[in-house]
């Protein structure tokens, strides 16, 4: 009986800790229609990133474009699974003022990401294709400026005027995201 009581106490304490941490780290729900956020969306954070050539990149470099900031890692299977869809979105909407910005979150940084990007090919409509959108190196400071990440992949859609209008944790739905992008272009 004493053992059961200890287990029950442990479970109650664990649930309380998880509830507290969830409440403290919960992000605002940005998965609402763009029209509701047009005037009140969170502004894009001021972040300084480095591309794979060491060039400085900021989100303000993309001002006037619709940007999908996609946090991913080379070891993340769901991340790799959505890359063909991201390549298709870039091809479909890129000429109209859209870009995907891939933020690689590998702890080893450029030493792992650059060879992966150079070598890896993805099946897009039956053809092997490489990344066709910019890849930058991220870190926890960058993730924190976006409100933290609960997992990979995480994507944040930013409007032409620099407002965060949609946040997706987990793999994207290409159809849903296409509609959101289309409404912003």
What does the secondary structure layout of this molecule look like, with pairings?
Layout: H1 2-25, H2 34-37, E1 42-43, E2 48-51, E3 56-58, E4 66-72, H3 77-93, E5 98-104, H4 110-119, E6 122-124, E7 127-129, E8 135-137, H5 140-145, E9 154-158, E10 163-169, H6 174-184
Parallel strand pairs: 4-5, 5-8
Antiparallel strand pairs: 1-10, 2-3, 2-8, 4-9, 6-7, 9-10
Helix pairs in contact: 3-6
Describe this structure in words.
This protein is an alpha+beta fold and 185 residues long. The chain has a single domain, classed as Glutaredoxin. The chain is built from 6 helices and 10 strands; from the N terminus they run H-H-E-E-E-E-H-E-H-E-E-E-H-E-E-H. The strands form 2 sheets. The protein has an 8-stranded mixed sheet. Helix 3 (77-93) packs parallel to helix 6 (174-184). The protein is globular and about 65 Å long. The N and C termini lie far apart (64 Å).
State the gist of this model.
The chain has 185 residues and is α+β, with helices and mostly antiparallel strands. The chain contains 6 helices and 10 strands, in the order ααββββαβαβββαββα.
Oligomeric state: single chain
Q: Runs with pLDDT <50, length 5+?
A: 26-40
In terms of structural class, how would the helical and strand content be classed? alpha+beta
Number of beta strands? 10
CATH topology: Glutaredoxin
The CATH homologous superfamily corresponds to Glutaredoxin
């Amino acid at each position: 009986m004493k053992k059961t009581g200890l287990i029950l106490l442990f479970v109650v304490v664990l649930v309380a800790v998880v509830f507290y941490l969830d409440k403290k780290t919960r992000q605002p729900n940005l998965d609402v229609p763009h029209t509701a956020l047009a005037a009140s969306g969170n502004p894009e954070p001021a972040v300084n990133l480095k591309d794979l050539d060491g060039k400085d990149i900021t989100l303000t470099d993309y001002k006037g474009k619709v940007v999908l900031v996609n946090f991913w890692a080379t070891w993340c299977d769901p991340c790799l699974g959505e890359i063909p869809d991201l390549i298709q979105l870039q091809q479909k909407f890129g000429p109209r003022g859209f870009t995907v910005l891939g933020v690689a979150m590998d702890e080893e940084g450029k030493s792992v990401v650059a060879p992966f990007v150079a070598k890896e090919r993805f099946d897009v409509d039956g053809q092997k294709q490489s990344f066709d959108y910019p890849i930058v190196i991220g870190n926890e400071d960058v993730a924190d400026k976006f409100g933290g990440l609960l997992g990979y992949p995480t994507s944040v859609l930013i409007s032409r005027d620099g407002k965060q209008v949609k946040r997706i944790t987990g793999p994207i739905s290409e159809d849903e995201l296409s509609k959101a992008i289309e409404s912003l272009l």
